[in-house]
Design brief:
The protein has 19 helices and 23 strands. With 539 residues, it is of the alpha/beta class. The strands form five sheets. It has a nine-stranded mixed sheet, with helices on both faces. A seven-stranded parallel sheet has the order 5-2-6-1-7-10-11, with helices on both faces. It has a three-stranded mixed sheet with strand order 16-17-20. The structure holds glutamine (GLN).
């Protein structure tokens, strides 16, 4: 491991969902703004090899990296904040650790030794902790440990963090512990006991946190900070208040105000490489908070009960809305509740409609009805992945008259499989990691809406799907005005469709939302908002 790389571990206590990912990303942003190169990785304590097989209802969106890793949604925050790509190495689960160790055991690599949690699992965890820091590319590697201190399943990770302090040596290692300071309304008091207990649990595991970041709904009075410092064994200036913020993008500035970055730098004997510069970030926030217009956009999908299932799409709208200085009122609509009889009333207040990615049949017909409405009424339409496939199926059914056109995902016996499996996909019998994943090139047709949005004709976007546009229907479909305006240059697979006689109707087989960041809003989202605004103004 390169000596100069510094390691920051972020643990969490008291409860889950405190936003470790946002704190990690905000700290990363602040260090990056001081000229340091930073990456963030997440270690998740569950047994799935990766989150690709997890239900979005339970776990939120599966985020996909350039190299095609299916990862935790926190990696999306890391990329959106830092504007730096992540990879498979940035998200490791207990399942992957065990899989690696067991594979080595089967190969006989442990030379007859008894294979145990300590040292074999912890060694494997540590070698993964250090992987990204090995070639000296990063000044700082931030590692977020998923779950809560005290969970049985995170014990090996916590033990590996304890050992890491000795591997790395003082000054190269730091633990930031994120906790909650609940407010008891009846007593009008902020309570420190849960934090004391969670720090005690860390201490029992041999880890002394260096910095406490305390989530709270009310400012922490100085006596509360003092109490926390005293009982949790941390310096008073290392008790950091993290008040609930209006937007996650405010958190870096809040952490700056609390001097989190300064504490980290001094504890790691690290110097800024440049003067702190957050001008672009502040500029983004300024535009986000002072819109000059507003549009209402419907996001139609089946996982709307858990908005985290559409995290990257929702964040992409935020980035694009700042770029357009146009507030986006995003209305999440369940496709299961949209029918042929009610779609006109359900959708009539919208200036634009996005049909979301998804899997399986549930809510599918609601999505078809939604597309019909957008197509027939000239409502700006954006279809992503399944959303694009639905647009093609709707067109085949209602314009080409193929009543039973479908994707073979929904109806394997359809007489008109306009969306179908590719040959390579047919042979696959495992679920995990077997879709078309990660970044692929796409050539855009000159003059298309897509080419106009991107301002170029060669792009790369990330994929996560099994089914594809069936090219044997391309001629027929194009002859009626749905054009393939983006194609994979190698395979000829259709990646984008657009309607000729429609103000803005774009369906993409890839997931543009994965590449939208604060500093680089995704061009299709920006153009979609513009089209919705035009529609609204012309009403
Ligand atoms: N279920 C579709 C497929 O596998 C679409 C996937 C998606 O929307 N991500 O092709």
């Amino acid at each position: 491991m390169a000596a100069q790389t510094k390691y920051i571990f972020i643990t969490g206590g008291v409860t889950s969902s405190l936003g470790k990912g946002i704190i990690a990303a905000s700290l990363g942003k602040l260090l990056q703004s001081r000229g340091l190169s930073v990456t963030i990785q997440k270690f998740d304590p569950y047994l799935n090899i990766d989150p690709g097989t997890l239900n979005p209802y339970e776990h939120g969106e599966c985020y996909v990296t350039e190299d095609g890793a299916e990862t935790d949604l926190d990696l999306g925050h890391y990329e959106r904040f830092l504007n730096v790509e992540t990879s498979q190495s940035n998200n490791i689960t207990t399942g992957r650790i065990y899989n690696n160790v067991i594979t080595k055991e089967r190969k006989g690599e442990f030379l007859g030794k008894t294979v145990q949690v300590i040292p074999h699992i912890t060694d494997e965890i540590k070698s993964n902790f250090y992987k990204l820091g090995q070639d000296g590319k990063y000044d700082v590697v931030i590692t977020e440990i998923g779950g809560c201190v005290g969970d049985i399943e995170s014990l090996p990770f916590i033990e590996a963090v304890r050992q890491a302090r000795w591997d790395l040596g003082p000054g190269n290692f730091l633990v930031v512990h994120l906790t909650l300071i609940p407010y008891l309304r009846a007593a009008k008091e902020l309570k420190t006991k849960p934090t004391q207990h969670s720090v005690k649990q860390l201490l029992e595991a041999g880890i002394q946190p260096d910095i406490l970041v305390c989530r709270t709904e009310h400012p922490l009075p100085s006596d509360v900070k003092r109490k926390l410092a005293l009982f949790c064994n941390v310096q008073l200036d290392s008790v950091i208040e993290a008040m609930d913020a209006e937007s996650i993008y405010d958190v870096p500035l809040l952490m700056k105000k609390e001097k989190l970055d300064e504490r980290v730098l001094s504890k790691l004997n690290l110097k800024s490489k440049s003067k702190l510069d957050l001008n672009d970030w502040k500029d983004f926030l300024g535009r986000l908070k002072n819109p000059t217009a507003e549009v209402t956009i419907g996001l139609v999908g089946k996982y709307v009960s858990l908005p985290d299932a559409y995290k990257s799409i929702i964040e992409s709208f935020i980035h694009a809305s700042a770029a357009s200085e146009c507030k986006v009122k995003l209305v999440l609509l369940s496709s299961e509740e949209i029918t042929k009889d009610n779609y006109k009333t359900k959708l009539k207040h919208l200036d634009g409609i996005l049909v979301a990615p998804g899997f399986g049949e549930r809510g599918f017909e609601g999505k078809i009805a939604t597309v019909t409405y957008a197509r027939e009424n000239n409502i700006p339409f954006f279809g992503i992945c399944l959303g694009m496939q639905v647009a093609v199926i709707e067109f085949a059914r209602n314009v080409l008259g193929m009543d039973q056109a479908n994707s073979t995902e929904m109806d394997p016996e359809t007489p008109n499989p306009v969306i179908a499996l590719m040959e390579e996909q047919k042979k696959i019998d495992q679920m995990g990691g077997t879709m078309r994943l990660g970044s692929y090139a796409c050539d855009l047709k000159k003059g298309s809406k897509a080419a106009l949005a991107y301002g170029k004709t060669k792009i790369q976007e990330r994929h996560r799907h099994r089914y594809e546009f069936n090219n044997s229907y391309l001629e027929q479909i194009e002859s009626k005005g749905m054009m393939a305006t983006g194609k994979n240059p190698k395979t000829g697979l259709v990646e984008i469709i657009e309607l000729k006689n429609h103000p803005w109707f774009v369906g993409v087989q890839f997931h543009p939302e994965y590449k939208s960041t604060v500093l680089k809003p995704q061009p299709l989202f920006v153009e979609f908002i513009q089209a919705a605004l035009l529609k609204k103004n012309n009403k």
